[in-house]
Amino acid sequence: MYKAMLVDDEKWILESLKGTVDWTEIGFEIVGVAANGIEGYERITELRPDVAFIDIRMPGMNGIELIGKLKAAEVATKFIIASGYAEFEYAKQAMSYGAVGYCLKPFKEEDIMEALLTVKNSIAKERQALRHELERLRDHGDMTRSLDSGEMEPAFDMATGAMDEALPNAADAVDTDGKETLRLIVRHIHEHFRDNLTIQDIARQFYLHPNYLSSLFKKELQVNFTKYLTDLRMQHACKLLKTTQLAVSDIAMQSGYKEYYYFAKTFKKYTGQTPTEFRID
């Protein structure tokens, strides 16, 4: 079931949108409404619906401003503009901002149906592209020898200078089916831990809500996203400090830290030593 949200300052418009089509029959559920653009922004960023019907003219923040702000916040919701004939030029402007369709007032069933089908087709194409990307990631393992067989790249034992399995074995912890996505996300993190990763970016890339991904991490891996990423980066830094002559600043960069002092502070908190002390110990 796809999630839909309605944003309009006129109550009768909201009721008209609700009653014009059988939303459930065509695979949509109305999860929320908002009476103006400011409230619409708060509700959409909170609920992350698949599609939002947005009125052009609203107090506080009009529909075009709302879409622009949501796009700047990288919200993946699809937008359908609701407008009157006199506002058609605004509707075209909204389309240039990324709206996938528009419905003129008074609403007609066929117009709303066509707009919703456009959204469903668009989402289906994106999910198909995601599936292809996940098949590609499943076959690609620069940082892992074989997640499917339950093996991860060995971590570096700070106490002994030897390799061990200190990092969580995500392949064993995560089941199949719906949790397969988390398995692939873990692989993605191991391949890109040097990049500026955030849970919001990863959730958006894998079409998940950040809160859901966060809870999935804690439930299945018994650790939150930030700690998992920090552990991975610190283990890599420890390995480089013990096995290479690279400058500490270069090791910081190769471990995902652009700011040297932040790296040094994090490393000291993690190991109890400065990077230099750890290297010569």
Brief characterization of the structure:
By secondary structure, this protein is α/β, with parallel strands linked by helices. 53% of the residues lie in helices and 11% in strands.
Distance between the termini: 58 Å
Helix percentage range: 40-55%
Q: Which stretches are poorly predicted, pLDDT < 50 over at least 5 residues?
A: 141-178
Topology order in helix (H) and strand (E) letters: EHEHEHEHEHEEHHHHHHHH
The count of helical stretches stands at 13
The count of strands amounts to 7
Class by SSE composition: alpha/beta
- What is the mean predicted local confidence, pLDDT? 79
The largest pleated sheet is described as: 5 strands, parallel
Output the strand order for the largest sheet: 2-1-3-4-5
> What proportion strand?
5-15%
The oligomeric state is single chain
Rg of Cα set: 24 Å
Basic shape = elongated
Commentary on this structure:
By secondary structure, this protein is an alpha/beta fold. It is 53% helix and 11% strand.
Secondary structure elements and pairings:
Blueprint: E1 2-7, H1 11-20, E2 28-34, H2 37-47, E3 51-55, H3 63-72, E4 78-83, H4 88-96, E5 101-104, H5 109-138, E6 155-156, E7 163-164, H6 170-173, H7 180-192, H8 199-205, H9 210-221, H10 225-243, H11 248-254, H12 260-271, H13 275-280
Parallel strand pairs: 1-2, 1-3, 3-4, 4-5
Antiparallel strand pairs: 6-7
